[in-house]
């Protein structure tokens, strides 16, 4: 049951697999659209496992009309399977209750996995309509299982006798996790409370879908249209060409369209010399979903926060953050607040020092022009930071891009590092169907020649795709069903015009390595039960392995293998790389401050403890401003990485969990130091990381997995040094190990 409920349906209910849009639509348009009607049921490819290699999805056979019938049949079939468990006259056993639940819902799992993956990667109006229609139905289905008193009684009976069942550690943990899931879902509540809980769950599912669809519709609607090439002075040629192509796609020939990304900061702000255009882009970004238009999310924010708080308190927690953190590695709001509070003052202090350097650059530049200087504003930061970087380190990002051709980075960088560390081999295949023609598909092999997985790389941004970067699994490994992984990475790299190379920025290169760290976590899974497969770990642990994988992006032997000029094949000059490495902590005050602003804002929303304190729609932005000021993270030139009305993470699967990235980075930085101290890029280190951590999924306590690899407790010092937050002159000592 975990595979259907906690993997696919959890994504559905939390709208973590966020919908994307092909064209702007009004908030209720998707919900009002006609849901497609299916042809004969026998033709539905979602009813049975795919006959393709490793059950790879039949993208060429699956149509939108197949999803609704598969959802309906899948839910009905799973309820029958649950009914058989409940009505079994035999006493509860691990096999007839827990394993039976693990085996249930296979059609539903298959259908929701493909559907929500496509909703994130390649949505359309029909899929948005289906999502809006089924989100509350999925919530009701989940409640019908987790709030079934007879089913819970069987689970509770096994939980109470778990030490007497003769199970191995993974089996015992499975019983414990199921019990905890039922309790957290409200299984111990009185019937009246459960009825109210069901109402709230359905409403939250509906609101979450609307929020995510509004965010992505506004991104498309708010794209900046530029009339002339002259206004784009400073923007790299490939970006100008992409903007021209985007305009043509909107039938705006002769103009240029700058699409917004999901974050507050926008990449063109780094390059554009036109200050008015930079301001226009920034203001379009920060006012998204709060302008009083069809995509305004402020009312939805207020509507989401109240039932979240009510649900948490109904389950015995003072606020939603406490409920959310109880089964994470952080455990408590006090622990999260302490870490964020300790980092914030140093981060803001660093940002203010950086701002002083930027202001000096502005003053000098304006004086040289004989013009009046101006005060540094948020839309100036990226532009002048790049100028300061050039002055300090004598290089700019544009110098790197010719050495970072995308497929070469993937195959001779990301894959090469995985080969050196884990012995993996990759072979591209073009015979499997894809949902977009520019996807890359690879068979992945272990060193002994056995197939490990199939890997999909979905690289390019498009209007039908949500922003950001992520990994998902179409098929999860587990020994119960004997399945092997099919996993995908998704980026949002601007697609160049036909015939032009895809040249990455350094950040995009690191992101490719990062996301492949998630893919490795999924591909190396070696567990018995679907519940624990792949990345099924606490949210504040899941980013840790992927952040570790970033270290290979600039590892000398890896970099030498992929950082080659796309035209000449010449290696990236060492002098240029040295400059990149020297600038590693440059602008770190800005990056840490904008991140902490978002993370602390998330905690403020979810640590509200009185329903009356939840702000109305008109007060949402005022609440945000007051929260940032209270936490000492309000610094005007550095707005939060996400503002509340477009903060999709916290309205979905990362509610009260955006702190997870930096929490995981503590583990990551510490682990990177361990790997460096033990020889770096070696098979011994790779095999140890795979065996003790990456292969274990959620089958063991997450922090125990960390301890199994490093032999010690987490140490924050490497993180402080990495981010330039350590006290002046302080040096990180090698962490004590046992």
Sequence-ordered SSE layout with sheet pairings:
Blueprint: H1 2-14, H2 29-32, H3 64-86, H4 94-103, H5 106-121, H6 125-146, H7 149-160, H8 169-184, H9 191-221, E1 224-226, H10 237-249, E2 256-258, H11 275-286, H12 298-314, H13 320-325, H14 333-369, H15 378-393, H16 397-400, H17 406-422, E3 425-428, E4 440-445, E5 451-460, E6 470-475, E7 486-493, H18 506-523, H19 539-549, H20 556-562, H21 574-582, H22 588-606, H23 620-630, H24 660-677, H25 683-694, H26 702-710, H27 717-722
Parallel strand pairs: 5-7
Antiparallel strand pairs: 1-2, 3-4, 4-5, 6-7
What's the short version?
By secondary structure, the chain is mainly α. The chain has helices spanning 2-14, 29-32, 64-86, 94-103, 106-121, 125-146, 149-160, 169-184, 191-221, 237-249, 275-286, 298-314, 320-325, 333-369, 378-393, 397-400, 406-422, 506-523, 539-549, 556-562, 574-582, 588-606, 620-630, 660-677, 683-694, 702-710, 717-722, and strands at residues 224-226, 256-258, 425-428, 440-445, 451-460, 470-475, 486-493.
Structure notes:
By secondary structure, this protein is mostly helical. Among the domains are: 2-216, Neurolysin, domain 3; 222-286, no CATH class; 333-395 and 587-658, no CATH class. The protein contains 27 helices and seven strands. A five-stranded mixed sheet has the order 3-4-5-7-6, with helices on both faces. A two-stranded antiparallel sheet has the order 1-2. The two termini are 39 Å apart. The model is unreliable at 1-33 and 729-738 (pLDDT under 50).
């Amino acid at each position: 049951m975990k595979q259907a409920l906690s993997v696919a349906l959890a994504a559905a209910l939390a709208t973590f697999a966020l919908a994307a849009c092909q064209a702007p639509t009004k908030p209720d348009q998707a919900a009002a659209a006609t849901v497609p009607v299916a042809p004969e049921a026998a033709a539905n490819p979602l009813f049975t496992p795919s006959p393709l290699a490793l059950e790879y999805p039949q993208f060429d056979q699956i149509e939108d009309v197949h999803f609704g019938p598969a959802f309906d049949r899948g839910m009905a079939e799973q309820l029958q399977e649950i009914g058989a468990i409940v009505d079994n006259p035999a006493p509860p056993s691990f096999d007839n209750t827990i394993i039976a639940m693990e085996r249930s819902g296979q059609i539903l799992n298959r259908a929701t996995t493909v559907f929500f993956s496509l909703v994130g990667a390649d949505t359309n109006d029909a899929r948005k309509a289906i999502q809006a229609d089924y989100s509350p139905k999925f919530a009701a289905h989940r409640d019908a299982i987790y709030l079934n008193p007879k089913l819970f009684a069987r689970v509770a009976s096994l939980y109470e006798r778990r030490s007497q069942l003769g199970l191995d550690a993974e089996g015992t943990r499975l019983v414990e996790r199921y019990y905890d899931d039922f309790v957290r879902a409200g299984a111990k509540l009185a019937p009246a409370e459960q009825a109210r809980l069901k109402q709230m769950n359905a409403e939250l599912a509906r609101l979450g879908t609307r929020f995510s669809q509004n965010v992505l519709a506004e991104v498309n609607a708010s794209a900046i249209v530029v009339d002339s090439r002259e206004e784009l002075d400073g923007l790299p040629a490939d970006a100008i060409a992409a903007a021209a192509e985007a305009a043509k796609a909107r039938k705006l020939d002769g103009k240029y369209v700058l699409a917004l990304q999901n974050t507050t900061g926008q990449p063109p702000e780094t390059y554009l010399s036109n200050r008015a255009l930079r301001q226009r882009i920034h203001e379009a970004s920060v006012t998204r979903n709060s302008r009083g238009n069809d995509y305004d999310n402020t009312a939805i924010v207020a509507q989401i926060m109240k039932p979240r708080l009510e649900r948490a308190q109904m389950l015995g927690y003072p606020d939603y953050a406490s409920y959310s953190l109880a089964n994470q590695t952080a455990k408590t709001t006090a622990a999260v607040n302490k870490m964020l509070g300790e980092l914030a003052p140093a981060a803001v202090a660093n940002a203010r020092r950086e701002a002083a350097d930027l202001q000096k650059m502005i003053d000098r530049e304006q004086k040289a022009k004989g013009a009046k200087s101006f005060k540094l504003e948020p839309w100036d930061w990226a532009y002048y930071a790049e100028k300061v970087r050039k002055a300090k380190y004598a290089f700019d990002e544009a110098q790197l891009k010719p050495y970072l051709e995308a497929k070469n980075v993937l195959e001779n960088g990301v894959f090469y590092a995985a080969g050196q560390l884990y012995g993996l081999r990759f072979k591209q295949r073009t015979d499997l169907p894809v949902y977009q023609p520019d996807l890359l598909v690879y068979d992945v092999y272990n060193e002994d020649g056995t197939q490990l997985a199939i890997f999909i790389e979905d690289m390019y941004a498009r209007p039908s795709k949500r922003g950001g970067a992520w990994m998902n699994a179409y098929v999860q490994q587990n020994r119960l069903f004997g399945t092997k992984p099919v996993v995908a990475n998704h980026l949002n790299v601007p697609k160049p015009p036909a015939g032009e190379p895809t040249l990455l920025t350094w950040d995009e290169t690191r992101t490719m390595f990062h996301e492949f760290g998630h893919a490795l976590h999924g591909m190396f899974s070696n567990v018995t039960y679907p519940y624990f497969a792949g990345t099924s770990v606490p949210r504040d642990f899941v980013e840790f392995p992927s952040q570790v994988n970033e270290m290979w992006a600039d590892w000398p032997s890896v970099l030498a293998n992929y950082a080659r000029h796309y035209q000449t094949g010449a290696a990236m000059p060492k002098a240029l790389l040295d400059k990149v490495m020297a600038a590693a902590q440059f602008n770190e005050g800005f990056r840490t401050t904008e991140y902490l602003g978002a993370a602390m804002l998330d905690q403020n929303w979810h640590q509200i403890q009185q329903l009356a304190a939840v702000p109305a729609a008109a007060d949402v932005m005022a609440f945000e401003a007051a929260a940032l000021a209270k936490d000492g993270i309000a610094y005007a030139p550095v707005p939060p990485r996400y503002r509340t009305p477009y903060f999709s993470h916290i309205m979905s699967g990362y509610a009260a969990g955006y702190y997870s990235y930096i929490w995981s980075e503590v583990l990551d930085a510490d682990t990177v130091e361990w790997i460096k101290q033990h020889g770096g890029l070696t098979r011994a280190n790779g095999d140890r990381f795979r065996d003790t951590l990456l292969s274990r999924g959620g089958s063991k306590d997450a922090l125990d997995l960390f301890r199994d690899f490093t032999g010690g407790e987490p140490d924050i010092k490497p993180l402080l040094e990495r981010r330039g937050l350590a006290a002046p002159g302080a040096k990180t000592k090698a962490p004590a190990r046992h």
